[in-house]
Q: What sequence folds into this?
C-alpha cells in the first residue's frame, strides 16, 4: 500500500467532529498511511484518564451516534494506534492550560508536542482539521 | 472446505466492522479466512475496498436479507 503522511488536528469538543476525526485516523492508519493526530483545545479534555465527560452533539446525527451502535471515538483513536501504528500527540499548550501531566492522559498518547514540532512534521503531509 | 472464522458485526456502524476484521487479521495466519457479517451498507462497500488496498483476497461478498456476508482471506 502506498503510504501517505496524514496529519489530523482536532480542536473541537463536539461529538460529530471527534467521531469524524477518529474515523479518519483509524481507517487512515489501518490502510497503511503514516497518521499523526494532534489534540488541542477542547478535544484534549476527553483524553484525560479521569475524564468521564460526554462530548455534546452539534445536531441530529450527533444525537443518533449516541443512540446507535457506533464505535466510540476514543475506541477508534486507540485502534488507530494499536492496529495502524498511528501516533497521537497532545498539544503542550493545552496541557499547560489544563495543568495536566503526561501521566494524566490515556496511555496510548505520545509525549506532548508543541506547534513548531507539529508544523514541521505536517509540512509534507495531508492536513485535516476538525 | 476451509474453516472460516465468523465475525458478527451486525448492528455496528462504519468503521466498526472493518476494525473488527483488521483486529482479527492482525493475529491470524496467512491463508486464514474470515466471514464478516454486517448490516451496515457503508461497511459492505468499504471492507472490499480496504481488502484490495491491503493486498488480501476478497473471496465473496453477498447480501442476504439486509446482511452482508464478506469473506476475506489473509494473503500476507
A:
Amino acid at each position: 500500500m502506498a503510504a501517505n503522511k496524514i496529519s489530523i488536528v482536532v480542536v473541537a469538543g463536539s461529538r460529530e467532529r471527534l467521531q469524524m476525526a477518529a474515523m479518519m485516523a483509524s481507517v487512515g492508519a489501518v490502510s497503511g498511511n503514516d497518521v499523526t493526530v494532534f489534540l488541542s483545545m477542547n478535544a484534549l479534555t476527553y483524553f484525560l484518564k479521569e475524564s468521564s465527560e460526554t462530548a455534546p452533539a452539534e445536531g441530529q446525527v450527533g444525537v443518533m451516534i449516541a443512540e446507535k451502535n457506533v464505535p466510540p471515538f476514543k475506541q477508534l483513536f486507540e485502534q488507530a494506534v494499536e492496529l495502524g501504528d498511528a501516533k497521537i500527540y497532545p498539544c503542550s499548550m493545552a496541557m499547560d492550560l489544563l495543568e495536566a501531566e503526561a501521566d494524566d492522559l490515556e496511555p496510548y498518547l505520545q509525549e506532548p508536542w508543541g506547534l513548531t514540532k507539529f508544523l514541521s512534521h505536517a509540512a509534507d503531509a495531508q492536513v485535516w482539521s476538525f | 472446505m476451509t474453516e472460516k472464522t465468523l465475525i458478527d458485526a451486525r448492528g455496528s456502524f462504519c468503521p466498526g466492522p472493518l476494525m473488527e476484521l483488521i483486529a482479527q487479521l492482525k493475529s491470524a495466519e496467512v491463508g486464514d479466512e474470515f466471514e464478516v457479517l454486517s448490516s451496515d451498507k457503508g461497511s459492505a462497500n468499504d471492507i472490499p475496498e480496504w481488502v484490495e488496498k491491503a493486498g488480501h483476497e476478497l473471496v465473496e461478498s453477498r447480501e442476504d436479507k439486509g446482511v452482508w456476508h464478506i469473506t476475506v482471506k489473509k494473503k500476507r
